[in-house]
Amino acid sequence: MSTSIILLCLVVIGAVAYVAARSRASALSGGRSAALHSRPAYYGSYAAIWAALPSLIVLCVWLAVSPGIISSSVRGAFPDDVKAQPAVQQDLAYSMVATIARGMNLLTSDEVSSLSGNPAGLQAKLSEKGVPLAGEPQPYMIDAAKTLNSESMTSRTIMTAIVLLISVAGAFYALRSVAPRFRARNRVERVMLWALLVASSTAILTTIGIVLSMLSEAARFFSVVPFVDFFFGTVWDPRFAGAGSSSFGQFGLIPLLLGTLYIGLVAMLVAVPVGLFAAIYMAEYASPKIRSIAKPLLEVLAGIPTIVYGFFALVTVGPFLRDFSSQISGLLTGNYTNFIQAQSVITAGIVMGIMLIPYVSSLSDDIITAVPRALRDGSLGLGATRSETIKKVVLPAALPGIVGALLMTASRAIGETMIVVLAAGVAARIQINPFEPMTTVTVKIVNQLTGDLEFTSPQTLVAFALGITLFCITLCLNIYALYIVRKYREQYE
User: Is residue 255 classed exposed, middle or buried when 0-12, 13-18 and 19+ CB atoms within 10 A define those classes?
Assistant: First the structure.
């Protein structure tokens, strides 16, 4: 039974338990709600919780633990020569076994029996079903795939029976607990309190889960590639085994990190002046009518998908800068050469800066308008002009908040992917010419995870090392920005 059907069964059992408990409470009270400690709906909710919650917990735990147990069992049946291989090779073998097992589920039992002794035929049949294999399966892989399917089916059958049994038992237990003076409301509210606590902790738990998943995979990468070579290497050349003298290539982070910071810097140089001036105008000079029109129109830019900005850079901004550089070169030297390439740091920076303008503008506008009106009135009352008031009073008061907003915007720029993929190229190199292409950490994460790859080789696992590095950079920026914004708010609240 599939997980979705099991969940549907739990919903049905919970609904039946709700109706039965509510009817039982009404019957025990003789139709007088005053005779009950809680309203009938609380009794029904109590029964529904007992019917659904324990079984859901068991279901989640089973789904989380059983794959590891089954994997360990299947790996334990591998031949001794396979067990003697490195962990990476064993992971590749198990991945192929899992692929074969998934393909066997698409075949009939007769087809599986007829192809068990024919690895080449099984490979061809699975390819017809849309499950291609990287190579011809070994006989032990076919047996392991059968074991994997058998144990998975057994595990799912036992899980289904236990989950449904717990759900029914919980419903009967709740029904037996229904009594006129039973404190159903207190029990339900306690459960809801814990549910609210879990919901409020979702962001923290999600962050912890993301960090742990990336750290576990990054640790596998650093077990193969030295820590120092990654963080201090100046060459990015992730070759596959057999390509050259090195079996793994070189995974230097420095070129990617410099490209990320360089493109982000150009983007901020474009976004900060335009966005900040727009915020000052809308907060201090624009009339309410103009502000009501200009602010939503400016913020429309934030709703445009980044891939659209990438297309804009690829077909408009990049060719324009290339042709413009050719014209300038022709006027100055008589030789029409393109010293600005269509894919370059400046192309990606300009377009990314346009994308970031509404972030800078909106955040800065909110911060400037939060400055107390008394400061403005006091400055104007002393004879200062409006521009002097903005420069000498408003902006200094809003400066901590504006700095925090700019740091948040910078973290958004560092994590951008699609614009850089289409506008900056994929050249991982160290250079300072903004008219040449460079690449970023996010682009290489995309490149390393593109295609039908297994997460076992250093060329794929490096994406997690890049991801945890980028996560740490943006997390530090966000923490510092929140600290500055909080400090600013404490001054006026």
Answer: buried
Half-sphere exposure for 372 (CA within 13 Å, toward CB): 10
Q: How many CA atoms lie within 13 A of 294 on its CB side?
A: 17
Burial class of residue 381 (count of CB atoms within 10 Å of its CB; 0-12, 13-18, 19+): exposed
Report pTM: 0.66
**CB atoms inside a 10 Å sphere around CB 362:** 19
Collapsed DSSP state (helix, strand, coil) of residue 462:
helix
A 10 A CB-CB count for 117 gives 10
DSSP secondary structure of 241-289:
TTSSS-SS-EE-SHHHHHHHHHHHHHHHHHHHHHHHHHHHIIIIIS-HH
pLDDT digits (tens, 9 = 90+) for 188-199: 899 889 888 888
> Which tens digit of pLDDT belongs to each residue from 271-306?
999 999 988 988 888 888 888 888 888 878 778 888
Instruction: Give the separation between CA 188 and CA 335, rounded to whole angstroms.
Output: 81
DSSP 239: P
Helix (H, G, I), strand (E, B) or coil at 383: coil
Q: Are 403 and 488 in contact (CB under 8 A)?
A: no
Q: Assess contact for 428 and 236: CB atoms under 8 A.
A: yes
Q: 3-class SS at 70?
A: helix
* Structural domains in the chain, sorted by start: 3-200 (no CATH), 250-492 (1.10.3720.10)
pLDDT digits (tens, 9 = 90+) for 336-392: 777 788 888 899 999 999 999 988 888 888 888 888 888 888 888 888 888 888 888
The answer to whether residue 324 scores a pLDDT higher than 60 is: yes
421: closest CA among 442, 395, 406, 407?
Answer: 442
Distance of CA 197 to the CA centre of its chain: 23
288 burial via Cβ count (<10 Å: 0-12, 13-18, 19+): exposed
Identify which of 158, 143, 145 has the alpha carbon closest to the alpha carbon of residue 63: 158
Residues 6+ apart with CB under 8 A from 317: 347, 350, 351, 423
Cα separation, 152 vs 465, in Å, equals 32
Nearest to 430 by CA among 261, 260, 266, 255: 255
Which residue from 230, 286, 301 is spatially nearest to 461, judged by alpha carbons? 230
